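Service request form, structural biology core

Requester: graduate student, group of Dr. S.
Request type: structure prediction, single chain
Budget code: on file
Notes: please return the result as structure tokens.

Sequence provided:
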Amino acid sequence: QVQLVESGGGLVQAGGSLRLSCTASGRTFSNYGMGWFRQPPGKDREFVAFIRRTAGETYYSDSVKGRFTISRDIAKNTVYLQMNSLKPEDTAVYYCARSAQWIATMPHQYNIWGQGTQVTVSS
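Core staff response, request fulfilled:
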């Protein structure tokens, strides 16, 4: 069974940076697209970023475009989310997930999820 494990969350001041990591077990990591979602307190889970399984094309929500960068290291079975210029409204539990679809920006397009990592941005 493939598992995804996130790390790198924490408490940071507004304007600061964090890098989240998501490491996948299994040998087929490169065959899937990977996404990051977040769930702010009391709100629904929302799309943050997606990276395709081939060519590495990336997609972002408007709220993070220009501040966050998704990337992947195939050799390490790891996908990253570099978050810069953080704002208090970025506070949420962040999840990575795996999708077999060519482009995936909705939660139902993903079949495996990590346990989440908390990111808190203080003002």
